[in-house]
Amino acid sequence: MKKIKILGVANLPQKDREEYNTILSTMDSIYSTAKVHPEPNISWSLEPELTDIMATSRSYKRLLFAWEAWHNASGVPLRAQYPRFVELSNAASQADGFNDTGADWRSWYETPTFEQDIEALYRTIEPLYQNLHAFVRRKLYNQYGSKYINLKGPIPAHLLGNMWAQTWNNIYDMMIPFPDKPNLDVTDEMVKQGYNATHMFRVAEDFFTSLNLEEMPDEFWEGSMLVKPEGREVVCHASAWDFYNRRDFRIKQCTTVTMEQLFTVHHEMGHIQYYLQYKDQPVGFRRGANPGFHEAIGDVLSLSVSTPKHLHSIKLLESGTSDTETDTNYLLKMALEKIAFLPFGYLIDQWRWGVFKGNTPPERYNAEWWYLR
């Protein structure tokens, strides 16, 4: 009954509700259409050009240009929209009895000590994260030198292989503890074997059916966006969708042929498998136990796929034999992706909670972000 009573944005008067939706649409458009112009007649989009540069370039200046130019092209206009979005979002949440939207979001986890629980969990992994950070910083120092890397300071965000420095696995080639062992990045092998987006999704489907889970329905293959379309701008962030008719489930992804994207395909299809399992429940029960639970399902499955043993079984890795050095390489690769992400994901929510509470006014948005970072 409690969930039925929560109306969210529907609480807002029609004029405010229309303004809210317009702001969301505008922010979505800004993010998806932002371009970087390295030369007058050349433009780079986030996908695929800038993402590829951040992942593969090892030029300090090129990376800095791409990072700074894209954040200016997207972040500056987004900042102008965000304060009003916060006002309207808070008004909708307050109508449902919450102090602000942050409190609304935290209520989904159904524990009054959620903030304290997350902080305690973070503190348990903080020493491991700090060791990983120090290791990566030293390796980057070896690559770029003292001019750019301070061995006692933070790591420049544009050097970590990702536009948001949220995962660091794209710089694994500079981090490998035992480089003489087989390369665990199978991107080149995927290209060599002629992988494309559809084949990557078929490989993922085979993985799930091998676990006695469901094949993707026909509507999935007919309606999903598996590659970036020509001639129109889209938000390329991968996502899975349930259209609530028990048949139509889709993935939106600008798939490129890389190992990282192959794991993302499995992650997103994990969401679809979850949708398929509860599709016959009443509508109120067709959702994850909480948003984190859905993500955990996707990540557990993608972790299973990433093991050398599995990559060998699908003929992407020559040998599935493990030894201490190979295992160490693999564990570091996973740490660069999973351990590095945890503080990033936490700080995003900390930042947003502070904004929704009013503790972080618009003029402090950027300063507070970098304070938390």
3D architecture notes:
The structure is a single chain. Helix content is 59%, strand content 5%. β1 and β2 (42-45) form a beta hairpin. The mean pLDDT is 94. Strands 1-2 form a two-stranded antiparallel ribbon. A two-stranded antiparallel sheet has the order 3-4. It has a domain at 10-97. With 373 residues, the protein is mostly helical. α14 packs antiparallel against α15 (365-372). Chloride binds at residue 109. Zn(2+) 1 binds at residues 267, 271, 295. Disulfide bonds join 236-254.
Quick recap:
The chain has 15 helices and 4 strands.
pLDDT below 50 for ≥5 consecutive residues: which ranges?
A: none
Widest β-sheet, arrangement of strands: 1-2
Percent helix among the residues? Answer: 55-70%
Radius of gyration: 22 Å
Note the beta-strand portion: under 5%
Number of helices: 15
Structural class: mainly alpha
Oligomer: single chain
> How far is the N terminus from the C terminus?
39 Å
Number of strands: 4
Element order, helices and strands?
HHEEHHHHHHHHEEHHHHH
Overall pLDDT confidence: 94
Largest sheet: 2 strands, antiparallel
The backbone outline, from C-alpha atoms, is globular
Name the features:
59% helix, two-stranded antiparallel sheet, glycoprotein, mainly alpha, disulfide bond, single chain, 4 strands, Angiotensin-converting enzyme, metalloprotease, carboxypeptidase, 373 residues, two-stranded antiparallel ribbon
